Amino acid sequence: MTTQQIPVVVLAGFLGAGKTTLLNHLLRSARGTRIGVMVNDFGDIGIDAMTVAGQVGSTVSLGNGCLCCAVDASELDEYLEVLTRPESRLDVIVIEASGLAEPQELVRMVLASENERIVYGGLVQVVDAAEFRATRERHPETDRHLTIADLVVVNKADRVSAAELSAVRETVGGLAGKAVVVDASHGRVDPELLFDRVVPEDEIEGQMSIEDILYGPEDEAHAHPHAAYETVSLTASTPLHPRRLMAFLDARPEGLYRIKGFVDLGAADPVNRYAVHAVGRFLRFYPEPWPAGEERLTQLVLIGSGVDAAGLRKELAACEQNGPQDAPDEHSMWGVLRYVRQSRTDEEPDES
Ligand SMILES: Nc1nc2c(ncn2[C@@H]2O[C@H](COP(=O)(O)OP(=O)(O)OP(=O)(O)O)[C@@H](O)[C@H]2O)c(=O)[nH]1
User: Fold this and answer.
1) Is 45 part of any domain?
2) Is residue 122 part of a domain?
3) What family, per the record (predicted)?
4) Among 134-138, 224-228, 246-250, which stretch is predicted with the lowest mean pLDDT?
5) How many structural domains is the chain composed of?
6) Pocket test residue of 10, 15, 21 for ligand 1, highest count of atoms within 8 A of CB
7) What distance in angstroms lies between residue 306's CA and the mean position of ligand 1's atoms?
8) What residues make up the domain containing 263?
9) Is the pLDDT of residue 127 over 80?
10) Cα torsion through 168, 174, 180, 185, rounded to 10
11) What is the position in ligand 1's atom list of the atom closest to the CA of 126?
12) Residues 8 and 95 sit within 8 Å (Cβ to Cβ)
């Protein structure tokens, strides 16, 4: 079932861009979310900040429920197996690519993994705002890496002027196409951009995180992280037309980074609801039988940066089926079925 699949996020970026800093930020602000981390070595991970509960082989279990292991690419599948065991109870896995790794290779390996318990969670590319120009000159492959990213974090915003930051953002935006671009200082992006946070039962809303306590409130000059994206929730009781839904998804607007939820396709498949998971360019449907007695609703959450919420609502409303004369024909499911996983070997990173 979709709800049990663990998103695997690939975190890449040039040497020193701030990947480990961002990872540490995620670990510190994890709260109830159990994060599995794969790194090349433990070196810079802020393990001491979190009481190491135990170490087995090259896996370290952190006091806050996170698990960490040091791997090289050839061990990836082996460690995915370890991290996705039910007893690990992880909510998300983050793989930090070494600064010199080809992110596309890692993405391909995640997509090709035989592990049924994972789903690709996107490629996050970290860019050093201060070094961006020089890095591009020295390493032309930077551009290629940006073109395949799903989310680009323009980090070290504190090291450049507002004008420089917007110039870097503009260049990155041009290269990264449909990817969402956010800026950050010290890797402090909102974790919700990367995965669904689990709020612990005993946590009071608005409570300060360990991060807030350690580092103080967010830096005013670089905007509150929530300003970086918007969330649009939609519920429809009329089934969606698969063909129009696919037209919407195939042309989903720039900046729409994640889509999750369930779709009711009505007569096109009366037995199943379709769980949908999209991150960046990646899109996947998971048909699963409607739970007995459950009301048949389409429930979607769309997360993006600079998206037009009213426009999205309108476009999705236009996907609703309009009575019997609009009933989907027998071919209308083809578009949807293209994104239903048939086998574990037919995956490619650039799928849209
Ligand atoms: N001023 C400033 N320094 C930062 C920021 N983010 C990271 N740094 C510093 O930049 C240096 C490199 O950061 P890391 O997080 O280790 O970068 P990395 O991408 O993991 O580096 P490699 O593992 O070598 O590829 C460290 O000294 C960080 O403290 C930031 O936003 N602003």
Assistant:
1) yes
2) yes
3) Belongs to the SIMIBI class G3E GTPase family. ZNG1 subfamily.
4) 224-228
5) 2
6) 21
7) 27
8) 230-337
9) yes
10) -10
11) 19
12) yes
